[in-house]
Amino acid sequence: MRNNYSFKMMITENFPEQLKQKGLKVTPQRLAIYEAVVKLKNHPTAEKIIEYIRVNHPNISVGTVYKVLDSLVENNLLKKVKSDKDIMRYDAVVIHHHHLYCSETDRIEDYKDEALDTLILEYFSKKKINNFKIQDITLQISGKFNNT
Amino acid sequence: MRNNYSFKMMITENFPEQLKQKGLKVTPQRLAIYEAVVKLKNHPTAEKIIEYIRVNHPNISVGTVYKVLDSLVENNLLKKVKSDKDIMRYDAVVIHHHHLYCSETDRIEDYKDEALDTLILEYFSKKKINNFKIQDITLQISGKFNNT
DNA sequence: CTGCGTGCAAATGGTTTGCACTACG
DNA sequence: CGTAGTGCAAACCATTTGCACGCAG
Questions:
Q1: Which residues pair with B140 in a beta bridge?
Q2: Quick one: which of A7, A78, A2, A1 has its CA closest to A44?
Q3: pLDDT band per the 50, 70, 90 thresholds, residue B103
Q4: N or C end of chain B: which has fewer CB within 10 A?
Q5: Which tens digits make up the pLDDT trace of A116-144?
């Protein structure tokens, strides 16, 4: 977490072990679904995940996918991402980071910037908000990707 | 927009006139729905809005409420607010501002802070994001309200 | 045995859509 | 007339739920 360049690397580190630590059993369904979220770029919807795993696991049911996603989010192994649409999307990067949104293309990219975080934290260490205790600040940065 | 203390005041300014400017007809339904969003604190859901207007307008239908909300959002007279749940909520404050979230109570408060905006803008005027052109930055500030 | 995890299908619930009707220019 | 706006009810669709089965400890 100290180095920015590799903040996405930890997402695949020993997922089965993390399941065990949380008291969750290691099942083919959970492995497949987690792999789908990691491999699929652009913060997939449940639908995309189902589509992806169906190739190698045609028998995993829709209900199971939602149940697994919920339990992984609850155990902080995945994160839910709100998009402009009212469809939930999922993110395998669970450490603190921001998001770049393009409303035209529905593309969502992770954005980590510790200098920015520090700047904002410093600001709020001086300026308090009335009757509110801050726990977390996440930026939604909207704009356009340059043809990539 | 220059003075912070009154940033919520403009929301009620001559709504019928704004409708006309956008080429929308002034109807009792639109007035009632807009009034509901303004009067109801905490960024109401469609359900809360329906509940509110039902008292004085028992015959406005659910479909109409959704259609009116959509058209007002499209014409920038209201804004959609994403909450943790997958239910849409609406905000009568359409100028740029941030949100304070309390996940425990589902409370959402508007937060305007031009000094903070300036700070962040200055930061990004120096540091560019690769392949991305920023159009808007919105903060989601999560935390807890102090018993108010 | 005990129970977590799964598959399946039905149910749920917020939102949308189609269509006929109305009011107003 | 012509059309934007509305009411109503059915449809939609992402997600949830209930339940029976299966597998591992």
A1: A138, B99
A2: A78
A3: confident
A4: C
A5: 999 999 999 999 999 999 999 999 999 99
Contact A83, A89 (CB under 8 A): yes
Judged on CB neighbours under 10 Å (0-12, 13-18, 19+), A103 is: middle
State whether residue A35 is helix, strand or coil: helix
Distances (CA, A) of B15 to B7, B9, B22: 16, 12, 11
Q: Nearest by CB to B142, which of A116, A123, A136? A: A136
Residues 6+ away with beta carbon under 8 Å from A7: A1, A93, A95, A97, A110, A112
User: Which nucleotide comes closest to B31 if you measure CA to C1'?
Assistant: D5
CA distance A20 to A12: 15
Q: Please tell me which residue of chain B has the smallest CA distance to A82.
A: B82
Cβ–Cβ of B129/A88 closer than 8 Å?
Answer: no
pTM score: 0.86
Q: Can you tell me the mean pLDDT for B118-128?
A: 97
Nearest nucleotide relative to A87: CA against C1': D14
Name the strand (E) or helix (H) holding B110: strand B107-111
Interface test with B, best of A73, A128, A140, A148 (most B CBs within 10 A): A140
